[in-house]
Amino acid sequence: MTKMAVLVAPLLFIGCPKDPPPPRPRASVSTSSRPVPTSPPIVAAFNGERAMDHVKKQIDFGPRPPESQQLAKTRSYITNELKSYGLTVSLDEFTATTPQGEKKMANIVAEIPGETKTLILITSHYDTKFYKDMNFVGANDPAASVGTLLEIGRVLGSRKEKPKVTYRLVFFDGEEAFCDGWSDCGDQQNPDNTYGSRHYVSQLRARNELENARALILLDMMGYKNLELGRDTTSTKWLQDIIWQTGRELGYNKVFVDREEGVGGDDHEPFLAAGVDSVDVIQLTSYPYWHRADDTIDKVSAQSMKIVGETVLASLPKITEHVTKK
Length: 326
Ligand SMILES: [Zn+2]
What we know:
By secondary structure, the protein is α/β, with parallel strands linked by helices. The protein has helices spanning about 1-15, 50-60, 70-85, 140-160, 195-205, 235-250, 270-275, 300-325; strands at about 90-100, 100-110, 120-125, 165-170, 215-220, 230, 255-260, 280.
């Protein structure tokens, strides 16, 4: 390494023009005459293997329902990873009343500050569904979306320039119902699901940030090795269109398909109800291992997480354009 440096240094000096060129993104080799993109350069690229490693780590902790030691370990892991990417991390802690009594929960929030307070939220839940008699490790639900969101955080954190808008990554606690079915317990006033996302909406409202939140992307069960993402019918059309179109432009036509996906409620729902445009990126009806003991690591792939991660990252400039135009 030292020898190389000695050899290279004089060459660089000789070749140095009078006016040094502006810094360019490391990976950019462009011969086209297209205009320079206005979005900041991506220094790091989304790495599916790194996302896969995050999946492994979560599964190693075991089942991770709210208030468990395993979820506390997962929370520390996520928090430490985010901090290592240079992101500002905070916990949104609260107590939820559930069919199993009072449960302490915490959303994890990481911010990439932008030039404005306008917010784009990129989110996933990180709890696994509670089962009394099943060793449920949730490789796709939600380890894959957590791994993907962490890797998105690493890429965004590596960018040198401030984005136009502020990005916030939110990892929700308590998405899953404590009772077997999504709506077996609870009622419209006190549903037995989406504890973390409902609490986070109330926090945004309390801090007068709700009107700044202009778009929410929810990742949930998007790591299946046979990935095929249909369109959730409750999601906001323009936002879903941007992501689906971007995915297809990247060559993932077989992943971003037009069939309707019947989700019927998820963490994006409280945001939609609060007037925040939201999209759920989810493969529910065609994932055979949903809420089963064999939702295991062999069902998810690094490539599927990379497809979604790359597509979300490539969609952000277009979403920014949409929410900042007046
Ligand atoms: Zn689930």
